[in-house]
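Notebook entry, structure prediction.
Reason for the run: the old model in the group folder had no record of what sequence produced it. Starting over properly, with the input documented here first.
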Amino acid sequence: MSFNQAFEINEFGHGASEPLISSIYEINQSNTPEVGGLSSSKSMKNLIEMASKNLVIKNGKEIIGFIVCFRENSKYKSPNYKHISSLDNKFLYIDRVAIKKSFTRSGIGTAVYKMLFDHADREKLPIYCEVNIEPINMPSLDFHKKNGFLKIGEKQFEDHSVAYFKR
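New structure, fully documented this time:
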């Protein structure tokens, strides 16, 4: 999918190149605590290998963002994924989405989510995600509400709290 001529959104998955994984890992780490930090690019590669839907956003040859999503029955061990798994038996779970700070608020997130919504609609899947509420991630809370997500619960962890959303 092209976005404003300069941007492309493409699916990727198993067998992703090391440079792609490394770039995505760097974007992930630069967006913490909004997205969970990972210990290494190998951890990112493991997530990608388990995920069912991954999208990468490019501006020319530059990787500027990504999204990693899971379906039900994944081997993923995240407490948030496990919680979502207890709520529904068929779903698409957005585990992480991040865009380089210099490209935020440009409509890219909306374009990526539209692709995700189209996929979920074809598969008749609800979409779940969580957003940090402690520390608060107000831009993400506003974005998800604007895109039709409804808050369905909260969970407190030792070092942060999240709100769960469904669309």
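Summary: Residues 57 and 159 are 30 Å apart (CA to CA).
The old model has been moved to the deprecated folder.
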